[in-house]
Specification:
The chain has 318 residues and is of the alpha+beta class. A 5-stranded mixed beta sheet has the order 1-3-5-4-2, sandwiched between helices. A 5-stranded mixed beta sheet has the order 7-14-13-9-10, covered by helices on one side. Strands 6-8-12-11 form a 4-stranded antiparallel beta sheet, with no helix packed on it. Strand 13 and strand 14 form a beta hairpin. It is globular.
């Protein structure tokens, strides 16, 4: 077994949603549920809240795993070069995302009775990791993660599994457009569930994804978010003082509401906005939400990104 990877709000004591029963085009519900139960049992041993199931995360994971099998890959990146967090945000996610990938290869066919055992072994190996090579374990046992989706693809003796994980604590979210021209005026606003308090936004910037060779894709065994372009603290005015009033680009109120208005970058690329917040009186800043705006001169998405945007409302029926 080869492992590749890095890394509604749950209410304690409430039922945790699990994957729905098998439906046409959506197999392995029992195996997905077993993954969630195993992960939540490990979290319970540490006193952590269980993860709720998210079908958007599952949809992202299924599509990526299917692509990996088709291309013979086993990591976070397919040959298209689209990063995990960007796939999730384009499909419609709005949380702070991270991903684990498990890969299994055998000359013998993996049947339905063996799949759960293969997945359980993979998770055990992740949970047994030790620092500093413990990215999978830290992702699964992150105290701020709230949701999980399990992506799966199986063909013959090949299995690919994705743990798509996210911190999702917004009760209202109106994100910016998925694609915009350079220097376009854009905005996002929303509200966090209590007792979360919005504190800052960070604008990240990266080049447009580019195609990877097979060796380049296999060489990426971990990943991170792109570099920072700017950061804004809540209710801090920006700009010149004088006759014109200074305006705070990012505002937040005492009930968890927030609003951010800005202009996209001057060049083509991908702009990620991270929302940072504090839980109750905890001083730690935690990334709890994100948006993605692809900046192009035509205000159109490249094909390698459009295919992920097309999954926003779910897979196309067979």
């Amino acid at each position: 077994m080869l492992l590749a990877g890095c890394a509604p709000l749950n209410v304690p004591g409430s039922p945790v949603p699990l994957p729905a029963a098998n439906t046409p085009g959506k197999p392995w519900s029992a195996e997905r549920a077993a993954v969630v139960i195993q992960v939540n049992a490990a979290r319970a041993e540490l006193g952590l809240d269980p993860l709720a199931y998210d079908t958007t995360l599952e949809r992202v994971g299924d599509a990526h795993c299917a692509t990996l099998l088709e291309e013979g890959g086993d990591g976070h990146f397919s040959l298209s070069g689209v990063a995990p967090y960007l796939r999730y945000l384009l499909v419609g996610g709005s949380g702070f995302h991270r991903e684990n990938i498990g890969s299994y290869s055998s000359t013998a066919r993996v049947d339905a009775g063996q799949l759960e055992h293969v997945l359980r072994r993979s998770i055990n190996r992740m949970l047994d990791e030790v620092p500093p090579q413990d990215g999978h374990r830290r992702s699964l046992l992150d105290p701020w993660v709230t949701h999980i989706g399990v992506g799966l693809a199986v063909q013959g003796g090949e299995v690919r599994m994705a743990h798509e994980l996210a911190t999702e604590v917004t009760e209202r979210w109106l994100g910016p457009p998925a694609v915009a021209m350079p220097r376009a005026a854009v905005a996002l606003e929303g509200r966090l569930v209590r007792p979360w308090r919005p504190a800052a936004v960070e604008v990240l910037w990266d080049k447009l994804p580019h195609a990877l060779t097979d060796s380049e894709a296999r060489a990426i065994r971990s990943y991170g978010y792109p570099p920072r372009r700017a950061m804004f603290n809540a209710n801090q005015p920006e700009g010149e003082s004088g006759s014109q009033p200074r305006i705070a680009p990012f505002t937040a109120d005492g009930s968890g509401g927030f609003s951010f208005r800005w202009s996209t970058g001057p060049h083509e690329g991908v702009e990620i906005v991270l929302l940072w917040a504090r839980y109750a009186n905890n001083r730690e800043l935690v990334p709890v939400a994100a948006s993605a705006t692809v900046v192009t001169g035509t205000a159109g998405l490249p094909p390698e990104l459009e295919c992920w945007r097309a999954l926003r409302l779910g897979p196309t029926p067979p």
